[in-house]
Design goal:
By secondary structure, the chain is an alpha/beta fold. Helices cover 41% and strands 14% of the residues. The protein is built from eleven helices and eight strands. Helix 2 packs across helix 4, helix 6 packs parallel to helix 8 and helix 8 runs parallel beside helix 9. The structure holds 3-methyl-2-oxobutanoic acid and sodium ion (NA). It is found in: Cytoplasm.
Length: 266
């Protein structure tokens, strides 16, 4: 696959080929993940926490995300780049969602957008897809609704599993090409995955999904503080970086940096 398209993701589902998605917000991670063959990169509104230093995803703006989307799309060759629509930029109406998404596609050169919500977002999803903009949906725990959902909690447990299934079917029916499921019981996510034609992308949703997504600063151990249960740390970049910075400082202090090879002769 020279350039990943939404139809490839559909084909991979029918072949039972699982794939990974990662967030990216800058040039170097975009290059690295693209070269590693990660088929889908998400410029998530999690940039709020992981780039801008906000406590939640709610404060981040379209303009703040747009500059990151541009950096990522300028840096990739093959990956499909999905831009997250931030809180308040699409919920009001399908027209608002369309205007915001056009900015991400036209100015950001994104290949698709992602928005949070199930059946209630069907009009937005339909408007976007009919207007030429592929949509990834996001159901289960939706961080932009943290205050409505009573904090970070698993969604779709017990009787609520039917609502999750209905939401998944509704976003598919409205035209979404994939759906993220966040923090839902593994058996429910597996059931949704088997009921849907479009791929499911899990985060805290068990191994039964068609794909998995993680925030790169979480999976590479750059994040400070305790990570959620669903995060697996594949590297410890915090200790790599702080070790290197310590060494730099001590070599500056003891005069061993810069050495002759880092210096210019007269
Ligand atoms: O913003 C984000 O990083 C996300 C993923 C965790 C799905 O929405
Ligand atoms: Na997000």
């Amino acid at each position: 696959v020279r350039k990943v398209r939404t139809h490839h993701l559909a084909k991979w589902k029918s072949e039972g080929h699982r794939w990974a998605m990662l967030t990216s917000y800058d040039q170097y991670t975009a290059q690295l993940f693209d070269e590693a063959g990660v088929p889908v990169l998400l410029v998530g509104d999690s940039a709020a926490n992981n780039v801008y230093g906000y406590e939640s995803s709610l404060p981040v703006t379209v303009d703040e995300l747009l500059v990151l989307v541009k950096a990522v799309t300028r840096s990739i060759q093959r990956s499909l780049v999905v831009a997250d629509l931030p809180f308040g930029s699409y919920q009001r109406s399908p027209e608002q969602a369309y205007d915001t998404s056009v900015r991400f596609m036209k100015e950001g050169l994104a290949h698709a957008v992602k928005l949070e919500g199930g059946a209630e977002m069907a009009p937005q999803i339909r408007k976007l897809t009919e207007g030429g903009i592929p949509v990834m949906a996001h159901i289960g725990f939706t961080p932009q609704s943290e205050h409505n959902l009573g904090g970070y909690r698993v969604q779709g447990r017990g009787d609520a599993s039917q609502k999750l299934i209905d939401d998944a079917l509704a976003v598919q029916e409205a035209g979404a090409f994939a759906v993220v499921m966040e923090m839902v019981p593994a058996p429910v996510a597996t059931e949704v995955t088997s009921k849907l034609q479009i791929p499911t992308v899990g985060i805290g949703a068990g191994a039964g999904c068609d794909a998995q997504v993680l925030v790169w600063q979480d999976m590479l151990g750059l994040r400070s503080g305790r990570a959620p249960r669903f995060v697996k740390k594949y590297a410890d970049l915090r200790s790599v970086i702080s070790g290197a910075v310590d060494q730099f400082q001590s070599e500056v202090a003891d005069g061993s940096f810069p050495a002759a090879e880092h210096s210019f002769e007269s």
